[in-house]
Amino acid sequence: xxxxxxxxxxxxxxxxxxxxxxxxxxxxxxxxxxxxxxxxxxxxxxxxxxxxxxxxxxxxxxxxxxxxxxxxxxxxxxxxxxxxxxxxxxxxxxxxxxxxxxxxxxx
Length: 107
Prior knowledge:
34% of the residues lie in helices and 36% in strands. By secondary structure, it is of the alpha+beta class. The longest helix is centred in the middle third of the chain and has 16 residues, at 38-53. The protein starts with a strand and ends with a helix.
């Protein structure tokens, strides 16, 4: 759950696939809270949980290629384009190694 001033404004979700040592990240934020960095902060915390606490190998995200906000968020998180599906979704991916390298370089 994502809260702002004790009010629910969104949620993040990691759908874990233990067979692939991976998760799919979903982040939903109320429209009135867009462009405030709330989604970025929540998704970054979910990535840290996935890679540090759960020790997953990768996290993927999917979106409609016209969803510029979701594409921007995935790029801010360091995710890389990894293909598309037959349903006109684009897939982005971030591995634990790439995430760790980016965090090391940011310090």
